[in-house]
Design goal:
Elements lengths: L1 E6 L20 E5 L5 E4 L5 H11 L3 E5 L23 E5 L8 H8 L15 E5 L5 E4 L2 E7 L7 E7 L2 E6 L14 H8 L4 E5 L4 H7 L7 H11 L3 E5 L7 H18 L4 E4 L5 E3 L1
Parallel strand pairs: 3-4, 4-5, 5-6, 10-11, 11-12, 12-13
Antiparallel strand pairs: 1-2, 1-14, 2-3, 7-8, 8-9, 9-10
Helix pairs in contact: 3-5
Length: 279
Amino acid sequence: MKVRFWGARGSLPVSGEEYVRYGGNTTCVDVRSKGGEVIIIDAGTGLRELGNLLLKQGIREYRMLFTHGHWDHIMGFPFFMPLYSRKTKLEIFGCACAQKTIQEILDSTMSAPNFPVNLADINATIHFNGICPHNFDIDGVRVETIPMNHPNGGHAYKFIEGDSSFVFLTDNELGASHEGGASYQEYVAFSRGADLLVHDAEYRPKEYKKTKGWGHSTFTDALGLAMEAGVKRFGLFHHNVERTDDDLDSMVEECRRRVVEAGVRMECFGVSQKSEFDL
């Protein structure tokens, strides 16, 4: 299983020389199975670059999973160039989010006055899988889900192929409860022993005093979860729009210091929009 990130920013994309190393695109993840299946997680602005690569690679069939329907996770969808090819076949998974299905959310996004091309008029063949099973399989990859602690809800994912596992827990608040969310210990159990855990780490503890309840975690709470779950690699994700490269480097260094002080063997890093992992 190969995992590549095309966007790691939260809320909205950013640009500028202070955002070069970690990038400014919003959430998009590309998971490739050993059999070559393409599994895309979320359709943030990073989806545009991924789409261009897929066209160059001549790959025309994809599966797409959505964590939830907030704007930063769907804004790249209309700019996914494979949508405009008759050769493209896309299966979309997504639970009902924000009182609507993913299909309804994408349809409204691509309707006037928001966008000039309606979802119904694109050339690709799209199948919306409206169900949200707890566990399902995609080309030998076991996909498990857990509700996120986030306003309007959503689902996080664990991908298991052979002995390797990747847990993706973005937009998940560990310091407060939201309707439909899971407990802290359930997130620990869900992440237990993962080869790679990527978790929302938007805030510093001082910032969280003003942002508690907004649906995002402190990097220290996320780090605590990673250490308790005994994961091998832990990535800070959903970077705040004001967080520069130097700021993120500082947070990563503090994570690494805490890991050493705790005597834990775990790699800690900040996810960039070019991060790649071979699990």
